[in-house]
Amino acid sequence: MEPNNDIVGRIYKALLYIDENLNKKLSLELVAKEAYFSPYHFHRLFSAVVGETLNSYILRKRIERSIILLLRNDNALIVEIAEKVGFDNPSSFSRSFKKFYGVSPSELKEKDIDKFSKICIDQSKNGQERVRFEKYISNINNHLNFIQMKANVEIKTIPTLKTAYIGHIGDPSKIAGAFNRLVQWAFPKGLMVGSIRMATLYHDSPKVTEIEKLRMSACILLEREVEVSGEVGLRDIPGGKHVVAGYEIGVEEFQQAWESTFVWLSERGFTPKGEPFELYYNDHNTHPEKKFIVDICVPVE
What we know:
The chain is α+β, with helices and mostly antiparallel strands and about 300 residues long. It folds into 2 domains: about 5-145, Arc Repressor Mutant, subunit A (Orthogonal Bundle); about 145-300, Alpha-Beta Barrel (Multidrug-efflux Transporter 1 Regulator Bmrr, Chain A), CATH 3.20.80. It is about 40% helix and about 20% strand. It contains 10 helices and 8 strands. It has an 8-stranded antiparallel β-sheet. The longest helix has 19 residues, at about 55-70. The chain is elongated, with a radius of gyration of 23 Å.
């Protein structure tokens, strides 16, 4: 499957906008607008195509730009450089700089700064780093190949799904505790018999929201009315038109599966809306390869 170069072209526009405005506030909404994407769609595509999150990219470019400014004028004040690369204050700039290079900007000025000049390789005459178009085309192609090999993608009208749920806030990898408590609640009520389906409903995106603030719901699909109490609540997953990508994957492949699904969506011209979810069809612990049989379901317009 050949990638749609229009996606790369629009991401490229966003990258150029970032490079030209590093000294300004760069919000997800503002950068997405430059690429003609909705913010919801853009942040996932950006990560899939560029290989890092938008915030990580902006931070890296600011730190790299600061090195260039130091190379050009080693008499520049730290506060001036911090302002020119979009930091609110020199202390936050210095902390970020040290995290990248192991030394603070002031310490670097006292060292042999020339050894850091390697980061300026591939600078064009106007000081802008050349974006390797081929790299981003390759990233898209890798995602399309992944979904072609790993997934069965369909457009489905999903009915409203009634669920009992327990909310989870924080690291998605730790949602297993919520599922365990949900199963313990459901078992004596006779809800763990027959065709059982569990789901994770995502209220935030890990590409945008800080990991400790991520909200999601561990859900069990209900086939009859039940009474709930305590931390267990009732929630409907809205029905409607969905892109449904069916996978059989290991836990380490979930991120790529999500990113590949969103690349596929964009390639086909779909606009996501609402809250996506994962729908599980097996207990991965009983799978011979410990894999999940799962649908990634994205509501679309």
